[in-house]
Write a structure and sequence with these properties.
With 336 residues, the protein is of the alpha/beta class. It is 30% helix and 21% strand.
Length: 336
């Protein structure tokens, strides 16, 4: 199961249902919400990010060594601090790229769904044209572009699509290494809308023009990820370029490992007498490798209790190598 998961919840993409499913499947994680002023936002996170403006302290504040983080939200603009990143960029420097996930929907369909949401639940009465033509409406038509700007989408861990929901949802469960229960909530209701709104060609042309950035982004990502959904993983091409260390701390081996040329969550093979007896994901936060510039985010640490490893006893010598590589970590081998 993935240690950290960051769900960039783009409005009207089935995100509320996905959030509930994620929280039920990953209930052993530290669960955090960032929806700005909405009541769902975790109070401690709101205080840190919105009131105190100390986003740089995020990892130190929420560094639970015993479990990973599940962070979900719209990650909206911080009022009074427009320089603060919004969207996925807000937390990009605090999690490995593999930890990020989102679902997309064709921008025209997404706008109509958002309009229905505002009519049904937010008391919107001014009509569709006003909904999309106002300054805020124009921002809604660029919602996906804004929330996914400032990050490396080639490395963005998982991108699913509403139009391929069943396939995307199944692939997400495999990607996370978890069984996701499907919980359908906050379902859109178009029956309350005037059918003329949905059939008006001038409205559709207006939305198409205002959403051109989102449409271009959607079409690009759909061409790249449809049926695939996940970012390229480590392969033979990354066999060189690792850097890492390991040491013994009582009954625990602790260390870090990352790749200097590509960002992914590396794995450490534990080798005894020429045989790999365990593989450990280097997916924990470590401040020192980040501060020294070895890791962009500091998510490169690992730890294991040697007493849980097969056939390990006092006097045994263990070697530590990057998974499927000849690179041996500094400090290896270790004699127990």
């Amino acid at each position: 199961m993935r240690r950290d998961v960051v769900f960039m919840h783009i409005p009207k993409t089935g995100g509320t249902s996905l959030r509930v499913s994620l929280e039920q499947a990953l209930k052993n994680h530290l669960i955090l919400h960032d929806y700005g002023d909405e009541p769902e936002t975790t109070p401690e996170l709101y205080e840190l990010v919105y009131e105190e403006g100390r986003l740089a302290d995020f990892r130190e504040r929420f560094n639970d060594k015993e479990r990973g983080i599940l962070l979900t939200g719209h990650f909206p603009t911080v009022e009074g601090n427009r320089s603060a990143p919004r969207g996925a960029a807000r937390y990009w420097d605090y999690f490995n790229a593999e930890s990020f996930m989102t679902f997309l929907r064709h921008p025209i369909d997404r706008i109509y769904s958002e309009y229905a949401h505002f009519v049904n639940l937010r008391g919107w009465t001014s009509g569709f044209e006003e909904f999309v033509a106002s300054d805020r409406g124009k921002q809604r038509c660029r919602r996906m572009s804004m929330l996914l700007s400032g990050v490396d989408l080639d490395r963005f861990g998982f991108i699913g699509f509403m139009e391929e929901f069943e396939e995307s949802f199944g692939a997400l469960g495999r990607y996370l290494g978890a069984t996701l229960p499907w919980k359908q909530v906050n379902v859109g209701n178009y029956r309350t809308l005037d059918p003329a709104v949905l059939e008006n060609e001038r409205y559709r042309a207006m939305v198409t023009e205002l959403s051109r950035e989102d449409i271009a982004l959607y079409e690009k990502l759909h061409a790249q990820r449809s049926g695939i959904y996940i970012a390229p993983a480590a392969d033979a091409s990354v066999a060189n370029g690792y850097i890492g260390q390991v040491r013994l701390n009582g009954n625990h081996v602790v260390g870090w490992l990352c790749h200097k040329g590509r960002e992914f969550i590396a794995s450490v093979d534990v080798i005894s007498e020429g045989e790999t007896i365990a593989t450990i994901a280097a997916d924990r936060f470590r401040k020192r490798p980040r501060d020294k510039g070895h890791s962009r985010t500091g998510v490169c640490g690992f730890e294991a209790d040697v007493r849980t490893l097969d056939g390990v006893r006092a006097g045994k010598t263990l070697s530590f190598r990057a998974h499927r590589s000849e690179y041996e970590l500094s400090g290896s081998p270790l004699t127990l």
